[in-house]
Design brief:
Elements: H1 30-38, E1 58-59, E2 86-87, E3 93-94, E4 101-102, E5 110-114, H2 115-120, H3 126-130, E6 136-139, E7 148-151, E8 164-168, E9 171-172, E10 194-201, H4 205-208, E11 215-221, E12 231-241, E13 246-259, E14 263-274, E15 279-282, E16 292-303, E17 309-322, E18 328-330, E19 343-346, E20 352-366, E21 371-388, H5 390-401, E22 408-427, E23 434-457, E24 460-468, E25 471-485, E26 490-510, E27 518-540, E28 543-554, E29 557-558, E30 563-564, E31 569-570, E32 574-575, E33 578-591, E34 596-608, E35 611-616, E36 619-624, E37 628-639, E38 645-658, E39 679-691, E40 694-705, E41 708-709, E42 722-723, E43 726-736, E44 741-747, E45 755-759, E46 769-773, E47 778-786
Parallel strand pairs: 1-2, 8-11, 15-19
Antiparallel strand pairs: 3-4, 5-10, 6-7, 8-9, 10-11, 12-13, 12-47, 13-14, 14-16, 16-17, 17-20, 18-46, 20-21, 21-22, 22-23, 23-24, 23-25, 24-26, 25-26, 26-27, 27-28, 28-33, 29-32, 30-31, 33-34, 34-37, 35-36, 37-38, 38-39, 39-40, 40-43, 41-42, 43-44, 44-47, 45-46
Family: Belongs to the TonB-dependent receptor family.
Biased composition (Polar residues): 291-300
GO biological process, one term: iron ion transport
């Protein structure tokens, strides 16, 4: 941590709320808010705040994120969304080290994405948030389905467990395991009264636990504001997408102070309708088959009954529904669309649905000598989808029965996770020679994964496979770190986390393609240690250098043991944890009277015992059998040559490769790790000006994503599809009319067909590659009205 940390907690009654966003809607979605609010049964206090400014018109740190926006201000500030005169890293506070502190003082590479700036750009989903973040990759089915996030090249393409952790405020979200879909269902949180989003790059295992090997994505929400009177905002957004249709979003937030400096209630809701842009042909043709409806709400209550005690209760719900995926069918060999531009062929509908509910309670008590936080949370995640398997499974089924009886095949998936977490954390006061954090963490996670494969015909039906895959995950962990300030310039931090988990897994399968009805169970247990060590040196009041060594891990797990006919032995019933160690050097500074900022880092990650879907003697197993190394450079900078002109840039160079062969899948040492471009860049330019007495802005973003592989080049199980580099251009403009903010945005100005990711699961069975493209040309307008 830096040598000049901010205070350990804000003055009573002061909350850093965004006066710039509001996501939510009116009465017909009230049940989405009331239900979760009633369900709150545990207390909690919020231990973090959003970015705040030290100067009235300070703008965000573009060095924190390319084109980062003005940090959100308290409701009482009533500043213009487009007001922005200076830029400095010192104005952005983040919570990466479980303390509120300026981004420049945190000895790691961390980006803070202001919700105001995301909204200004017309961004509404995790695909939008991450598209301009160099060094961060997303593999998705579009329409909110199947998000897999990776950072700094820490991915194998088809990850067993998540390599990037996801938090909502102080609560870890989603499953930690393969069986709970943790790697493929990263939370896609709409701008539901968010304050900002933090991206922590590099392993965060010591403070954030399992799965945060490549980094952490943290959603930070607005807190209820106890000051002033009733306030809030309402907004509407309209847009049209080429090859698609009409999109719209309605949102609102209301803040109700109950007693000044003591209690406040905040409620928000939103309704988002995306028309989609992929067309489907086949038995049920549809335009915009990937059209999606996203609705959600949040209710939050903050009570500060005494100077030292703060209680925050929060309930969040969000539902995503879509008629189909955004994947386009491509010929794997010719690399051409099979059915036309942005078109897929399906013989069956592929609806997707996700419902999440998150209830958290945070109790914070300040003893003076330390601050105690008790964070309790309960969450449910319900995912369901259908997948058309006609081209793959109908020929196989017809060959089994010896007649063309079947015409369509449907895979059904239902994945459900219930998770309880409890964390107790003591944090010493800041600005002491010795600072420390100590915590205990517990999670109890139960998942079900039901899968059914049916083929049907005019007068025929056959269940090929039915599988029920229940699993449990329970973890106990203790962690802590110490920061010692040798001088006013030099400090060192050492941290350690010890975690133990127990897991169970059962596989119940039946059907002719399963070899008959069977039931197998397995269990596992492992203990892992992660550590952290940093040295931070303040070169001047506005610049510092740091060195960081950190480790991360993913838990191992159970798997069914099967007979290996080659050896006559049963295969292993477990796979082991995989671990990595990261070495990082960095430099952060403000220049030119804080009108220029840079953040530069170089990293070297050693990853071993990598968990992989592997083929061993003809058996499909999860194994630990590979090593990899990821080296890279990251640069983020901003420049404000005049009060009117703001420039921001981010660049990431990543060389991530296997350093050991994986013979079972044909992967070789030297192969690039999938979905990781060698070079990615984003640049922002904004111009601020006045129209009469009103403040306005114009802006543009240019982003470049380099060539990537979708898998390992020589893999036979999942053939590799080369994804070419692409460039995208976005524009924005807005004006603050005082009583309303009006803005315009353009995404993908030149309507480029940038390939974001590829799925080749069915290529070996004669199926197509399925390609996800960036959103086509989209032009939109939004109006935001504060009250």
């Amino acid at each position: 941590m830096g040598a000049n940390n901010n205070r350990n907690r804000p003055r009573r009654g002061r909350h850093h709320n965004g006066d710039d966003i509001v996501r939510p809607v009116g009465g017909r979605y009230a049940s989405l808010i009331v239900g979760p609010a009633i369900g709150l049964t545990v207390l909690c206090a919020h231990a973090q705040t959003a970015p705040s400014n030290t100067a009235p018109d300070a703008a965000p740190v573009a060095a924190s994120a390319p084109g980062a926006a003005e940090p959100d201000k308290p409701k009482t500030a009533r500043k213009s969304k487009v007001a922005s005169d200076t830029t400095t890293l010192n104005t952005v506070e983040i919570t990466a080290n479980r303390r509120r502190e300026p981004a420049r003082e945190v000895p790691m590479q961390v980006n803070a994405l202001s919700a105001q700036e995301l909204q200004r750009k017309g961004d509404q989903s995790v695909r939008d948030y991450l598209k301009e973040q160099p060094g961060v990759s997303l593999v998705s089915g579009g329409n909110g389905a199947g998000n897999n996030i990776s950072m700094r090249g820490v991915t194998t393409g088809s990850d067993i467990g998540p390599t990037v952790g996801v938090y909502v405020d102080e609560v870890p979200f989603g499953s930690s395991t393969n069986y709970g879909g943790g790697a493929s269902h990263a939370l896609d949180m709409a701008l539901l009264d968010l304050n900002h989003v933090e991206l922590l790059r590099g392993p965060q295992g010591t403070l954030y636990g399992a799965g945060a090997m490549g980094g952490l994505l943290k959603y930070v929400t607005n807190e209820p504001d106890t000051e002033g009177g009733l306030s809030g905002r309402a907004g509407v957004m309209f847009s049209g997408t080429e090859h698609g249709g009409f999109n719209h979003t309605e949102d609102a937030v209301v803040n109700v102070p109950i007693k000044q400096d003591v209690a406040a209630f905040r409620v928000s809701a939103f309704n988002q309708q995306d028309a989609g842009y992929v067309n489907r042909i086949g038995s049920d043709p549809e335009k915009g088959v990937d059209g999606t409806t996203t609705r959600g709400g949040r209710a939050s209550l903050t009570v500060t009954p005494t100077r030292d005690l703060t209680i925050r209760l929060t309930a969040t719900t969000q539902q995503i529904k879509s008629d189909g995926s955004s994947l386009v069918d491509y010929n794997f060999t010719t690399r051409q669309p099979i059915f036309g531009d942005l078109t897929q062929s399906r013989q069956a509908n592929e609806p997707y649905s996700q419902l999440i509910e998150l209830y958290s309670a945070n109790i914070e008590y300040d003893f003076g000598w330390a601050r105690l936080n008790s964070i309790s949370a309960y969450q449910t995640v319900r995912n369901s989808n259908l997948s058309d398997g006609t081209s793959t499974f109908v020929p196989l089924a017809n060959s089994v029965v010896g007649a063309p009886m079947f015409t369509s095949g449907i895979e059904q998936f239902a994945l459900s996770t219930d998770k309880f977490t409890q964390e107790l954390r003591l944090t010493s006061p800041a600005n002491r020679k010795l600072e420390w954090i100590a915590g205990l963490f517990f999670t109890d996670e139960r998942s079900t994964n039901d899968q059914i494969l049916n083929v049907t015909g005019p007068e025929a039906f056959l269940n090929l496979v039915s599988a029920q895959l229940p699993s449990t995950y329970r973890e106990y962990a203790g962690y802590g770190d110490l920061t010692y300030h040798f001088t006013s310039r030099l400090s060192a931090t050492a941290g350690l986390r010890i975690a133990h988990n127990d897991q169970t897994f059962t596989e119940n399968v039946s059907g002719p393609f399963s070899g008959g009805a069977t039931s197998k169970s397995a269990q596992s247990a492992d203990t892992s240690k992660t550590y952290l060590f940093t040295l931070d040196y303040l070169l001047t009041q506005n610049s510092s250098v740091y060195g960081r060594v950190a480790s991360g891990y993913r838990p191992g797990g159970p798997q069914p043991s099967v007979l290996d006919v080659t050896t006559g032995k049963m295969s292993s019933a477990t796979f082991q944890p995989d671990t990595l160690t990261s070495y990082e050097l960095g430099y952060k500074a403000d220049f030119l009277e804080k009108r220029a900022s840079i953040s530069l880092s170089a990293f070297d990650i050693e990853w071993k015992d990598i968990q992989l879907f592997n083929v061993v003697d003809g058996l499909n197993l999860i194994t630990n059998g590979a090593k990899a190394r990821s080296k890279g450079l990251e640069f983020f900078g901003s420049l404000v040559p005049t009060p009117q002109w703001h420039l921001g840039m981010g660049l990431a160079y990543t060389d991530a490769r296997l350093t050991q062969d994986v013979t079972g899948i044909g992967a070789r040492s030297g192969d690039r790790l999938p979905n990781t471009p060698a070079l990615s860049v984003a640049a922002n330019l904004d111009y601020l000006f006045n129209v009469g007495s009103y403040r306005a802005y114009l802006g543009a973003t240019e982003s470049y994503v380099g060539r990537r592989t979708s898998g390992f080049p020589n893999s036979q199980s999942t053939p590799n599809f080369e994804l070419p580099a692409y460039v995208a251009t976005d524009l924005r403009a807005g004006i603050d009319l005082r009583k309303a903010n009006v803005s315009l945005f353009v995404h993908n100005l030149f309507n480029r067909r940038g390939m974001q990711s590829a799925s080749n699961s069915f290529v070996q069975l004669g199926g197509p590659s399925q390609i996800l493209f960036i959103q086509p040309l989209t032009i939109g307008m939004q109006v935001d009205v504060p009250f």
